[in-house]
Amino acid sequence: MIMTDAREKTGPELLAEIEALKKRLESLETTQDEDSQTGSTPNESEEMYRNLIERANDGIVILQDGNVKFLNKRMSEMLGYGNAGIIDKPFTDYVKPEEAERLLKRFARRMAGDPAPSRYEATLINSTGKFLDVEINAGHITYNGRPADLVIIRDMTEHKEAEKALRKSEEKYRLLVENANDVILIAQDGVIRFFNHQTSELTGYSDDELEGKPFIELIHPDERDFIENRHKKRLKGDELPSTYSFRVLHKSGRTMSGQINTVKIDWQGRPATLNFIRDITEQKKIDARLRMAQKMEAVGTLAGGIAHDFNNLLMAIQGGISLMLLETDKDLPNYDILKGIERQIQSGSKLTRQLLGYARRGKYEVKPLDINKIIDETAETFGRAKKEIKVHKRLDRDLYPVKADLPQIEQVLLNLCLNAADAMPDGGELFIDTANVSHLDLSAKQYIAKKGNYAMIRVTDSGTGIDKGTIDRIFEPFFTTKEMGRGTGLGLASVYGIVKGHGGYVDVESEVGKGTTFFIYLPASEKGAETAAGLENDIVKGEGAILFVDDEPMVLDVGARMLERIGYKVFKAKSGTEALAIFEKIKDDIDLVMLDMVMPDSAAEKTFEGIKAVRQDIKVLISSGYSEFGEAEEIMSKGCDGFIQKPFDIAGLSKKINEILTQKA
C-alpha cells in the first residue's frame, strides 16, 4: 500500500510498497477484465487504491517497452506536463541525456529477468528545463497482460540541496577552524577531544600526541592548579571570567604567554569546554617595552629638567672661572687650583650631557656626518687606553651619511666601547661593523621602523654576556651592575636617549658567556657628510654691540662680563619682553642678539620672531642647556645663525660669535 504521510520512507519500506502495489495492480487488471466481460463498474476497493495512488507523495510510473503507460498526479506535477502529453512517450525523454542509456539498460535487464539494481539515483528534466535529483525504486509487474516496470520516483532535489548546503557549511567552518591563527580545542574529562592544526604549531606536539592528551600538560606547572580549578568550576556552571592569561608549555620546555577564551558546551552529549587560545608572547614583550618606554620618558623629563638647571649653575661657575683665569698668572699657585675647578666643571658638564642625551634633549648642532670617520677616531682613542682589548673594524666605505650631532654620536660610540670593556676585564676582542640597511631589514623587530634608509653600527664584544633579568633593565637611567662609586648607570641610558632623539633605534642581543652585541640604526641623510672644523682655545677679540637675553640672573651677569672682556658692548635683558623693548629703541646699534632658548611661556620663540620682525637681517645666537623637543633646531631653520651649549667658556664663546659676525649674509 502506498503511504501518504510526509515523512521520508526507508529503502525497505519503498520496496515493500512496490511489491504491494504490483500485486494490487495485477489484481485490478484481472478485475478489469472480468468487469469488461460482465459490464459491471469497478468496486469500492479498486476505487480506494486508485485514490491512494493518485494521492501518493511519490511519483508512480508504469513503463512498457520504455514508454510511459501510466503516471500518477504527483509524477505529472514533478515533470510539469499533463498526462496526455506524457502517455506513450519514451520515459528517457524526461531523463538527463547522459543517464538515459544507463536507465534503458537496467529496464532491459529487468524485462529479460536478469539481475538489475532496483533502487538507484537519477536526474530528470521537467518542463522548465530544471534538473530534478530523484531516487528510483523499480520492480517488474504484468500490466494489461504484458510485462511492465513499476517505478516509484521520489523527488530528492531539496534533500540534495540541503546536503550540499550542509557540506558547504561544514567545509566553511572546517576551513575556518583549521586556518585560524588561534588554537581551538575541546577539553572533556580532563583530556583533549578535538583540536585544530594551530594547536600543533603552538605546542610542538604532533596530532597523534595531542589526541587524548591531558590538557593540563600544556600549561606551566606553576599555573596548573589555577587553570584546572577554573575548568572544573566552569563545568559545574559557575560564573567565571571567560578570558584570562596563562603560560603555555611547549613540548621543548619553552614557555610562552597565552590568552584563553573559554566557554562551556555539550560535546557528543556530555559537558565539555570549547577553548580559544592566542599566543600573546610577542604582545607581552611589546607591552613590556611600551611600559619601559613610558617609564623612561617620565624619568627623562625629570633628568632633562635637572640637567638644564645644573647646566645653568655650571655656566655661572664656568664663566667666573674663565674670567679669573684671564686675571691670574700661570706661575701663581691659584692658577692650578682654578684649572682644577675648570676640569671639574667639564666633568659635571659631561654628566649633564649624558642626562640630556637620555632625556633626548641634547640635539644641538645637527649636520651630515661620516660615521666611519667617527668610528676610526673613537676606536683609535679607545685602543690606546685599553691595550688589552683588540679592536676589529669592518666598515662599509659606502656607508650612508647621517644627520646628527657630532659630540653626541661620539658619546654613543665611546659609551658602547666602555661598556664592552667592563664586560672584558681581562681583555678580549671588540668588533665594530657598519652597513647600509633599510626599514625592510628591520621588519622582524619588535618596533615598526619608519620608512627609509639607515646606517647600521654593530658593536660586539667577547665578554661575559648579560643575563635576561639584567638585559631588560640596561637602558634604565641609574641602573648599574657595578659596585657603589664605580658607575653612574647613565652610559647605556644616554646611548638609548641619544639614538632615539636622532630618530634611530637601539637593539641588544646577549647570552651569558657568549658576549653581547649592540645594534644602532641611524636615519640616513640625503646630504653628504661635512668635515668637522678644528677647535681653537685662544680668545678671538671682537667689537660691536650685543643684546644678551637670559632669565637666570647669575648666568646673565657672568655672561655679560665674559662678552665685555672679549670686547663687546653689552645690553642685558632678563626677559623676552624687556629684550624686545630694548631692541626696538636701539635696533640699528645692535650687531648680534644672544638669546637663551629656554624661558617661561615660550618667550624665546616669541622674542626671536619679534626681533626678526623689527629687523630681518639681525644676527641671532641661541644658547641653552638643552633643546626641548627640537625647538632649537626649529628656530635655526627659521633664520637663527648659530647655537652654543651651556656651559661654555670664554674662548668658545668668542669663537662662535666671531664665526657668526664674519660670515657672509
Report on this structure.
The N and C termini lie far apart (115 Å). Strand 8 and strand 9 (255-267) form a beta hairpin. 43% of the residues lie in helices and 23% in strands. It is elongated and about 150 Å long. The protein has 19 helices and 22 strands. Mean pLDDT is 80; it is low at 1-11, 31-42, 483-489 and 532-536. It is of the alpha+beta class and 665 residues long.
CATH superfamily of the largest domain: Response regulator
Unreliable spans are: 1-11, 31-42, 483-489, 532-536
- Structural class by secondary-structure content: alpha+beta
CATH topology of the largest domain, anyone? Rossmann fold
Question: Judging by the overall fold, what is the CATH architecture of the largest domain?
Answer: 3-Layer(aba) Sandwich
Short recap of the structure:
With 665 residues, this protein is of the alpha+beta class. It folds into four domains: 11-159, Beta-Lactamase (2-Layer Sandwich), CATH 3.30.450; 180-279, 2-Layer Sandwich (Beta-Lactamase); 289-343 and 538-665, Response regulator (Rossmann fold), CATH 3.40.50; 363-523, Heat Shock Protein 90 (2-Layer Sandwich). Helix 9 packs antiparallel against helix 10 (333-358), helix 9 (281-326) crosses helix 15 and helix 16 runs parallel beside helix 17.
